[in-house]
Write a structure and sequence with these properties.
InterPro entries: Homeodomain-like_sf, HTH_AraC, HTH_AraC-typ_CS, PchR_regulatory_protein, Tscrpt_reg_AraC-type_HTH. This is Helix-turn-helix transcriptional regulator. This protein has helices at 17-31, 43-47, 143-146, 158-173, 179-198, 209-222, 231-237, 242-250, 256-274, 279-285, 291-302, 306-313; strands at residues 6-12, 51-58, 61-68, 72-73, 81-92, 94-98, 106-109, 112-120, 123-126, 131-138, 151-154. With 314 residues, it is of the alpha+beta class. Strand 6 (94-98) and strand 7 (106-109) form a beta hairpin. Helix 4 packs antiparallel against helix 5, helix 4 crosses helix 6 (209-222) and helix 7 (231-237) packs across helix 8. The longest helix has 20 residues, at 179-198.
């Protein structure tokens, strides 16, 4: 593998329908295209191309995130050979796949994923307001695992959460990674995708620690006001042991409990400034034992008692 075969770009054409397709194709061919050819788009798609893309090429792996206002569909034409494995993860909308245009063989609906081996590039159609991610991987590591089958399920499955969290981190940090970091990022993408085919993963592997910690943080953000939020709840949702989760956070110099406490304090601080809630109401909402406990923690973190902070910032 060549260390130079990495690149990323982002493009938002949601307000530039007439030039968006040309800008996207130019950026893709410049930064990602080698080994990952683009399909031809339908005339309707090229005429109204209002989508936001973020793409990263990590050697022989490609990640594409799409957030569309308009619909998108491939056109008839020669189909590229593509001995690759693809994973489609749909957050909203849908991703319809077929061997021929206007033929739907599988639709990945919101909240679900599909992973399959593809010898040729699929035709696809996305309705308006689809938000999804597609990860293209080399076929070799999956040849025995997949054995011609496909794997489908819910996007909130623990292994899929880990893969999505890692893919997003790679998209964001790729330009700053060293060659060793690029190799680790690529290998972890492949390993997490193979875990999806097993519906499980080796939770002892330390290479997965950053992805596991990020997936836990993403989940914690959704549950900050939940009275049950804890290391045990996060570990249960992500299908790992509490000890494994704690080790993943420790690898980044953090603890799960400290992270939850910090995020709750920060959310409470923002609520004090922008809402009409009292200190007691804020403390209760963010699951502090009582207002006195909250006030002590707040002053220790921000240097002022909550009431003083509100007076100075409103």
């Amino acid at each position: 593998m060549d260390d130079n075969k990495t690149a990323s770009f982002s493009l938002d054409s949601r307000r530039a329908a007439t030039t968006g397709r040309d800008d996207f194709e130019r950026s893709w061919r410049t930064h990602v295209g080698d080994g990952f050819p683009l399909p031809r788009f339908s005339a309707a798609t090229t005429a109204d191309f209002r989508l936001r893309f973020r793409a990263a090429k990590v050697r022989d792996v490609a990640i594409t995130s799409v957030d569309g206002v308009s619909a998108a569909q491939t056109a008839d034409g020669p189909s590229h050979d593509a001995d690759q494995v693809r994973l489609w993860l749909v957050r909203s909308g849908a991703w319809a796949l077929g061997s021929r245009r206007n033929t739907v063989e599988h639709t990945v609906v919101a909240g679900h994923f599909l992973l399959r081996h593809a010898a040729r590039m699929h035709h696809f159609a996305l309705p308006p307001h689809t938000r999804a991610q597609c990860i293209v991987l080399p076929a070799a590591p999956f040849s025995l695992l997949l054995g011609g089958r496909e794997v489908a399920g819910r996007a909130d499955a623990a292994e899929v959460r880990l893969l999505a969290a890692h893919a997003t981190m790679v998209e964001e940090t790729l330009p700053d990674l060293s060659p060793a970091g690029v190799q680790a990022a690529r290998d972890t993408l492949v390993e997490l995708a193979t875990a999806v085919t097993h519906h499980g993963f080796d939770d002892v592997n330390t290479r997965l620690a950053p992805a596991l910690a990020q997936a836990a943080k993403n989940l914690a953000e959704e549950r900050l006001a939940d009275v049950d939020l804890s290391s045990a709840m996060l570990a249960r949702e992500l299908n790992v042991s509490v000890r494994t989760l704690q080790r993943a956070f420790a690898a980044g110099g953090e603890s799960v409990t400290a992270y939850i406490r910090e995020r709750r304090l920060e959310s409470a601080r923002q609520a004090l400034v922008v809402s009409r809630l009292t200190v007691s109401e804020v403390a209760a909402h963010w699951q502090f034992a009582d207002s006195s406990h909250f006030s002590r923690a707040f002053k220790q973190r921000y240097g002022l008692a909550p009431t003083e902070y509100v007076r100075k910032n409103t």
